[in-house]
Amino acid sequence: MRRHVPLILLVAPLLVAGCTTPEPAAPAAGSSTPTTTPSPTAPAVDYTAWQAGRSTPVADRVYPARGTDALDVLHYDLALDWAPTTRTLTGTATLRIRPTKDAPNLVLDFMPYQVDGVTLDDATVTGTVAKEKLTVTAPVVADKPVTLVVKYHGKPKTTPMPSHRKDVENLGLTVTKEGGLWTTQEPFGAFTWYPANDQPSDEALYDIKVTVPTGWTAIASGTPAGQSGTTFTYRSADPVATYLTTLAVGKYEKLTAKGPRGIPLTYWYRKGADDKLLPYLKKSPQYLAWLEKKFGPYPFPSGGVVVVDSASGMETQQMITMGRKIENTKARRDRWGGDLLHEYAHQWFGDSVTPTTWTDLWLNEGWAQYAQDLYTKETLHLSDASLDRYLRDADAAARKKLGPPGKPNPKNFAEGNVYLCPEAMLHEIHRKLGDKAFFALARAWVQDQRNTQQDRASFIAFVNKQTGRDFTKLINTWLDSKTTPKAVTVA
């Protein structure tokens, strides 16, 4: 997704008071070898190594055309090669998949690249790409894992973003004028560079290996796992939703730092073009220290930022994707830094604890936006009354324009209501609990639910259990009301 929604935040109001078309596929858009039945003598694979990538996929009601609940990808192994001169991506994707249902085939989201070969458990099968779906013709059995290998090549193409935001850009793998790459893909778009179950409830482990020409650098989500020649490798030992993966290729400069408790941080930027952003990148340890104080330990073994040719930012896991075109304004003179802190907050809210479906996007954005505004309030020494007034006014305007946050319109993905309205709700819970109990609740939520997918019902149950009070009516009212709620009694 594109981030950050163009909010005025607190500064102005509170200071007063305190591509190219992909190559055409072959007629069948798949391998030329006929379908064969997987060999019963194929060597057994021990899938326990990827059990941390096990999920319970749920069909998404907001974007039902993306993803499926019929399979659970445990692990993606992506071996990619990028040729800037021809704008060609060549890939071999190895997927370890646990089918959740008996089915006559496997279906994944995938851009229509030229498919060069498909195997299932080492047996050659037919893979057909049509309408951005890869259908692998071979029967699978529920809970009997299989290994799918897809070889492909072609010219990347993006997909439209279902939103009216001012910073909207197409989703997926984007080719720059210089022949580089970058991507953001919320609510979908990972399928523009690898076959994927492109929905939030199916998280998986990742190994990403990218080969580029001499002088170029490849950056991906996860922990850096070494470089051999011009091949860069990244690994995610914590499960990742497809929308939280990233890939960037360019002529980058590298800067390293240490975050709280020695967390290794890496910043990738373009010399000259991004020099003015270095002060913000270098504040990353400060941002993370503040977030750890509020929400507990940073949930991953490494972090960092890659700067790309975007007008927004995205909380891609362990390697945040930040747009160099995000502009500071007179009213928001620290917008780039504020947005970066917002994306770091998402490493807790959205990345480590992920929504089960896009109906609960508010669960990501409300927390991250509240963290951003609390940071602004503290650093600018703004008053509680100013924050109260700002949030109620902003909530009223967002609901009037876009409706309640708990019932998002598929055509208005990630617009202001799913940021501001749940933020106002969290502020109301904060007011009722006080600082100590509220931040104990926040820390427990992200630390106890680490590497899981959650929804409204589980959030309500957790809040009620953690606080010993019944917040059900308050939360449901704030998520579903067409107007800003008045006082809601909590038992």
TrEMBL record:
<dbReference type="GO" id="GO:0006508">
    <property type="term" value="P:proteolysis"/>
</dbReference>
<comment type="similarity">
    <text>Belongs to the peptidase M1 family.</text>
</comment>
<dbReference type="GO" id="GO:0005615">
    <property type="term" value="C:extracellular space"/>
</dbReference>
<dbReference type="InterPro" id="IPR027268">
    <property type="entry name" value="Peptidase_M4/M1_CTD_sf"/>
</dbReference>
<protein>
    <recommendedName>
        <fullName>Aminopeptidase N</fullName>
        <ecNumber>3.4.11.2</ecNumber>
    </recommendedName>
</protein>
<dbReference type="InterPro" id="IPR001930">
    <property type="entry name" value="Peptidase_M1"/>
</dbReference>
<keyword id="KW-0378">Hydrolase</keyword>
<feature type="signal peptide">
    <location>
        <begin position="1"/>
        <end position="25"/>
    </location>
</feature>
<dbReference type="GO" id="GO:0070006">
    <property type="term" value="F:metalloaminopeptidase activity"/>
</dbReference>
<feature type="domain" description="Peptidase M1 membrane alanine aminopeptidase">
    <location>
        <begin position="282"/>
        <end position="478"/>
    </location>
</feature>
<keyword id="KW-0031">Aminopeptidase</keyword>
<dbReference type="GO" id="GO:0043171">
    <property type="term" value="P:peptide catabolic process"/>
</dbReference>
<keyword id="KW-0482">Metalloprotease</keyword>
<keyword id="KW-0479">Metal-binding</keyword>
<dbReference type="GO" id="GO:0042277">
    <property type="term" value="F:peptide binding"/>
</dbReference>
<dbReference type="InterPro" id="IPR014782">
    <property type="entry name" value="Peptidase_M1_dom"/>
</dbReference>
<keyword id="KW-0645">Protease</keyword>
<dbReference type="GO" id="GO:0016285">
    <property type="term" value="F:alanyl aminopeptidase activity"/>
</dbReference>
<dbReference type="InterPro" id="IPR045357">
    <property type="entry name" value="Aminopeptidase_N-like_N"/>
</dbReference>
<keyword id="KW-0732">Signal</keyword>
<dbReference type="GO" id="GO:0008270">
    <property type="term" value="F:zinc ion binding"/>
</dbReference>
<dbReference type="InterPro" id="IPR042097">
    <property type="entry name" value="Aminopeptidase_N-like_N_sf"/>
</dbReference>
<dbReference type="InterPro" id="IPR050344">
    <property type="entry name" value="Peptidase_M1_aminopeptidases"/>
</dbReference>
<dbReference type="GO" id="GO:0005737">
    <property type="term" value="C:cytoplasm"/>
</dbReference>
<dbReference type="Pfam" id="PF01433">
    <property type="entry name" value="Peptidase_M1"/>
</dbReference>
<feature type="domain" description="Aminopeptidase N-like N-terminal">
    <location>
        <begin position="74"/>
        <end position="228"/>
    </location>
</feature>
<dbReference type="Pfam" id="PF17900">
    <property type="entry name" value="Peptidase_M1_N"/>
</dbReference>
<keyword id="KW-0862">Zinc</keyword>
<dbReference type="GO" id="GO:0016020">
    <property type="term" value="C:membrane"/>
</dbReference>
